[in-house]
Structures are given as C-alpha cells and as structure tokens.
Amino acid sequence: QVQLVESGGGLVQAGGSLRLSCAASGRTFSDYAMGWFRQAPGKEREFVAAISWIRGRTYYADSVKGRFTISRDNAKNTLFLQMNSLKSEDTAVYYCAAGLSSYYYTEEGYSYWGQGTQVTVSS
Q1: In terms of Cα–Cα distance, which of 123, 94, 109, 106 is closest to 4?
Q2: Under 8 Å CB-to-CB from 86, ≥6 apart: which residues?
Q3: How far apart are CA 27 and CA 45, in angstroms?
Q4: With contact defined as beta carbons under 8 Å apart, do 49 and 81 qualify?
Q5: Mean pLDDT, 10 residues at a time, over the chain (123 residues)?
Q6: Pairing mode, if any, of strands 2-7 and 18-26?
Q7: Measured between alpha carbons, how far apart are the two ends of the chain, in Å?
Q8: β-bridge partners, 114
Q9: Which of 31, 61, 34, 59 has its CA nearest to residue 45?
C-alpha cells in the first residue's frame, strides 16, 4: 500500500505560479512511477504529467508542456508539480498517483491515488 497526500493548492491569478507537493508513505517510493492528473468541474479526469521510477524520465500533456515541471525527491518520498504561467483553464482538482506500470498517460497505469488539492486560477 502507498498513501499519498497532496498539498500546495490554492487561489492564484492568471499568469501566476503554484507548486504542488505529494507526500508518499508506505511502500518504497522510488519503485513507483508517479503522475499528476486533474479534474475540472463537469469534465473527466485528465493526465497532466508523469515521471518514471527509473531515470526520472518525464512526460507531459500538450496543454501544460513548457509551463509545468514534474519532479521527485526519492530521499524525501515527495513528488512535486511546479506550475507557471497559470491559466484559468488550469482550474481543477489535482491528484497525484503512483503505479508500477509504464502506462504513464492513463489512469489505469496507477494503483494509488491521493485525495486531491484544489487549484483555482482567476482571470
């Protein structure tokens, strides 16, 4: 079992920045690929970014590429999402997830999920 707790969400103006964190506990954090997903009101949850468990290779949705950066600190069992140049369409609940597969872009690739943190971008 892996427990995930997100933090760092909040209200920010368009063009601003936020840094999300996801603290993991339980199994060995470094064994897992980690991802960020988001769900806006009335929409399905969508992939945002992922980082592999080995070599730390990163993957991004086109909508956030160049603005968001995913990273991980295996020594501190923590995942991060640095979000810059935020837009109103980035408003959503952001979830971190952990999985052992290489299906980084889909929910099915992840076995464990956090409760989510709200990000609201005002225009």
Answers
A1: 94
A2: 12, 14, 15, 16, 17, 18, 67, 119, 121
A3: 25
A4: yes
A5: 95 98 88 94 97 89 98 93 98 96 90 97 95
A6: antiparallel
A7: 40
A8: none
A9: 61
